[in-house]
Amino acid sequence: MNYLDYKKYGNLFIDLSRCQGEIDWAKLKEKHPEINFAITKCTEGVNYIDPTYLMNTDGAKSVLMACGAYHFFRWTDDINQQVSSFLGNARNADFLALDIEQNYQQQHHSIVFAKTEKFISQIKKYAEKPVIIYTGGWYLPNFPAIAEDFPLWIANYAVKDPSKLKIAKPWIKANAWQMGNLEFGVPFALDKSVVKGATKPVSCDINVVLDDKFEQYLGVY
After folding, report:
1. pLDDT at 140 exceeding the cut of 80
2. CB 144 within 8 A of CB 171
């Protein structure tokens, strides 16, 4: 496999959830000094709270520059309840990320567009911290215009050069890029000593900041 040299891009961060297990954050900083900040899963839909969120956030903030919280948006769930759950549970995060990627069938496109617009609008109205939007090419090719008010963090494991990223409108560029993990041609995984009980390296996505203003916006510098 032709692996991507992720370290050449400099400012790196990870995103993680209960899937990565219990993290020893001091050990993570020792084994992966290239990681500057983290984004941890907080909530999903209406009722789900990631059981590792508080532990991960406190641990990450103790050794890294900052830690953000993300919410996995479900267009099939009530919008107002999702906003309330996310903002209520992410109080200790330094910034917020909206994970907008739930699959849908084409006949639901107009519904998904409208609900995405409402969700982003409600977050913009009530959030008291910096907000970014995460998505991938499999979601809306065109986002609501209000999305342009927030930096774009985009997933694309197929390209090896950020200049080749396909950007959804209304954005004209990506501010951060999720490059992938070992399974997708990026030689990065958490060292087994970082995760309690692990007997081999643990899969984890690696991301790169593409724009210095992104860090300033988040307060990560």
Report:
1. no
2. no
